[in-house]
Amino acid sequence: MADxxxxxxxxxxxxxxLKAKKALQPMAAGQTxxxxxxDPGSIKxxxxxxxxxxxxxxxxxxDGKIFRFVxxxxx
Amino acid sequence: MSEDGTKSxxxxxxxxxLDWAYPPFILSTTAAAxxxxxTMFFTFYGLPLLLKNLSLEMSPLGNPAxxxxxxxxxxxxxxxxxxxxxxxxxxxxxxxNMMKKKGVASIEELRSLAxxxxxxxxxxxxxxxxxxxxxxxMIGGIELGGAATYIEVATQSDINLFI
Lengths: 75, 163
Prior knowledge:
heterodimer; A: alpha+beta; Translation Initiation Factor IF3; 4-stranded mixed sheet; 4 strands; 29% helix; B: alpha/beta; Hypothetical Protein Ychn, Chain: A; 2 domains; 5 helices
């Protein structure tokens, strides 16, 4: 179970990224954030977000409709 | 790049219609979320994007690339239609409605996210004088500056965009 859940379903680019950044801000280093999204572009965007910011993309999967990501906040 | 390795981006914002307001605000808020220092310089028709009360509109006039999804097709609008009153406001309402349905953020929302994430907002002093705006017309937290102010920012930025 992730420490926090962010429901970004129904939101389009760039809102899932912006909301994720906001959700991560008050979290402690090492804590995990689970994100649910329906934007298919979010797969590549969360990879780029994590590569650029240094947070770790722990999980990324989808059932074709809902895209799920788990990000661990960098220390 | 700054000394601590933080990257930075600047954007010159020159257009203020509803459609053209999106690219600069999407890119600035996303860059800020990715940890970049971002500066936006609002000049000419981009300046009204800093007004307290936004009343953004768009026009299909002279824009053959604007094809709206309609009844399973994509329809453009002949230029002559734009002469009819309320066609532009109708197209604007249609676009806003479509954006809401597709979960696209409003410009107001993106702009407040930009302010919140400490994007530096500079209003072009010359354009303020030219179009007779005062700081009281604008949202709080903005700066005034001129071309030299922008160039200084640009020399220190990793990415410089003109939109």
